[in-house]
Each structure stands twice: as structure tokens, then as C-alpha cells.
Amino acid sequence: MKKRILCFLLSAAMLASVTACSGGGDTSSEGSAPAGSGSNAEASQPADSSEPIELTVLNWGSDIDVKINQDAYARLNEKFPNVTVKDNFVTGTATWSEYITKLLTMIGSGNSPDMVMMAIEGVRQLIDNDVVMPLDDRIEGDEDMQAVLDDISPRLVEALAVDGQTYFFPNSWNSIVLYYNTKMFADAGLEAPPADWDWDTFREYAKKLTTGEDNSEDKVYGYGMSTYSIFMTLFPFSNGTSTLTDDQLGSNLSDPKVAEAFQVINDMIYVDGSMPMPEQGMDAAQLFAAGRLAMAAIGPNSVQNMLTADFTDWDVAYLPIQDKENGSHIFGVTGYGILKDTENPDMCWEVIKELVSPETQEAVASAGVSNPVSRSAFETRALEVPKNWEIFYDAIDQNSRCLPAPINDSEYEEILFRYYYEMMNTQQDVSGVLAKADEELQASFDELK
């Protein structure tokens, strides 16, 4: 296992020099966690529950997430003061590639945490490196967690499973929906986006909403999206395809439907003039809040920032689906897993139970950073803006699929980013660029065999 991790680290280090944004900071917070709780406490807690135990968690998030976890550990500490949980939070603008590399470096150096919060981008990599344990037996034998599962969309659980086994228990997720400026719609004489619209209607809306001279301060584009992999795959998903094969073990960039999807983006930039040319680090949420985009593909994590800025002239709708039979929306999900090197797997399970408990999930909903996985917790957060806030969770029921996240996710994203910018840097037939990208991406997968 250590040899596989070393090989991964050497590869990831080279990729990080190309793809990394600025590094995130580490924030450690401590709290206490349970020796056991719920209906299976006696079976899962150690024989001597008074023995001091310290557990570590590698985590990702903001100061808000740090506070949510501290409160969770404080609740547990009322019952189990002997267990201390140390949260090693990675905050700031680190990429998931950097985060995964940090974890594998810790494991390779003998400093493995007991638990890790991981996004879908790293799930297959960690399972392939054989560093996390399956959770199926624990889930099946725990009445408390069965009740939690009943309140979670099965798609979120299935996204974190590989080959029929569950290695991470979901704690939050992000749906990508369309934010639109209601004032700009009214000024353009447009009604709210129809639920069943396609690309043709979408492009007409975007053209009508585009105003101002190019490069001027009052320029408004009809549509824009951030330059992250989840957004780059929106249009292929809408067209009933993906950048990867169904088993995520090969490139699917040679699929004509992928070329069709990326061609639409290029045409919106250069033919319609309704999209800005993508730039590295482009943040559509900031451009939308600043009034530079009339429509934007954004997740729920931007709601709170817009409300804090007193920006209320907006609502949300579903993004257009082109292939009505096979097209889908897209989502990302995170979950907690237990590392195989831990000496206290039972205690780790109890910690995870609190981190996905109704109280913690309601705190996630209240914070407005990501969607809680609990549907009932999500429904506790009634908002006046956006008016259609329910679709942030309802999107999971609209034939949504999880974003592509292969074993070689770092290389996949680096290749996708590089060729995406090449496809969009000038008006062109994108199929030639995709042919080069397909060859390079498939070679990356072939090296895994």
C-alpha cells in the first residue's frame, strides 16, 4: 500500500505545479467525541470508556464548518468527556488535488488521521490506495444511522459507493442550478426560465439578456459559469453523455455528443456573444452578484453571500436539458470515512454519527454554505430569496448524476482544464482539440492498467 501511495504522491506533486491554485491554510480545532451513543452504544464503545482517547480528523471547509463541528463535539462531550477530537481543517483556496495529496502524505509518513472528510473527487483514489475501510456492516447494524439514511436521497449514498460497497457516509452536497437576475429578465421582457427548456431557448434568453459594449464597465453577459470541472461537465451531462466512460475507467471525449456540448459553449462565446471567454479562476457567483451576468450556473454555497450583500433581485431555476431522455443535472457530494490505520474504528463511527446527526445537519442548513444531506433539515431553512429555494434539494430527484471523479482525478482535471481553455480561446470547431484531449486522457487511464 505504501508503494502505491508513494507513486501517487510523485504524480500528484508534478500535477500540482501545473494545476494548483493558492494553497489553503490549516486550522486545528479540538472538541470531545463519544465513546458510544444511540441504540448500539454498548456494542461499539471500548471496554474501558474512561480511558482517554484522542482522534484526529482531516477536514475541509470554512470557519463556519469549523464552528459547526466544534458544536457537534461539545454535544458529544456532555456524554463522553474522555474522548478528544482534533480537527485538522484545510481552509482557504486549496484544490481537492492538494487536499488529497496532503492526506496521502500524512499516511505515507506514518501520521495518518483517524477519519477524513472527502469530496467525490477523491473517493476512488482513496479506495484504490486501500486506505479507507468499508462502512456497510456498521450502517446495516445501526438503527440510528438507518433512520438518518431514510432522510437522505439514495443518489447521494450511491455516489460514495464503489463496487457495491460504501466507504464514506455523506454529510453535505452541492447541486448546480441556474441563478437568474429577475430585474434583468423583467427589463428584457422575459418570463422565468421554463422547466423543460433546451439549448435553443436558453441561447435565445442569453442573447436577449446580453447588453453593453464589449470591454465596457456596463457590459452584461447573458450567461456565465465558473472554471471548475463540475461546471465544465454541465453541457455534456445535459446532452446525455459524459467526459468519461460509464465505469469512469476511460475517456469519452471522442463521443460526438461531447463535441456538440462544448461547441455550444464556444458558439455562445463567439457567435452569440452572450458568454465571456473563460479565464482561470473565473468566479461566476461574484460576476453575477456584481451585475455582470444575467444568468449563471452556481451552487447553494453562494446564497448566504448574496443575502449578506443585500442582493435580492434574483431567483433560481433548473438548467436546460438538451437530451430529454438521457440528459441530467449534476451534483457533487462529500462524506466522512474511517482510515484503516486507526486504532479506534468504533469510536470513529460514533463521531461520524454525530457529524451527520439531525442537530448537525440543521446547523449546515442554517449556515447556507452547502446543502445538508438530510432532506428534513434542508426544509427547515425557508427563504424569501430565492423564491424557488426548494430546487436546491429537489434537483437531486431530477435525474441528477454525480460529477465524474476517476481514480486519476488529478490528471483528469489537469487535462480537462488545459484543453477546455484551448477549445474556448478562439472561435473554432472544437472537435480537433477534443481529439487531442481524448488521446492524452486515455493514455493516462492506460497507465493505470
TrEMBL record:
UniProt xrefs under Gene3D superfamilies = Periplasmic binding protein-like II
Going by the UniProt record, its keywords in alphabetical order are:
Signal, Transport
Sequence ranges of Low complexity compositional bias: 28-44
- A Gene Ontology term for the protein's cellular component: cell envelope
Domain of life assignment: Bacteria
- Signal peptide positions on this chain: 1-22
- Any matching Pfam family: SBP_bac_1
Which residue ranges are recorded for the region named Disordered?
25-50
Report the sequence similarity comment from the record: Belongs to the bacterial solute-binding protein 1 family.
Name under which the protein is recorded: ABC transporter, solute-binding protein
What is the scientific name of the source organism? [Clostridium] leptum DSM 753
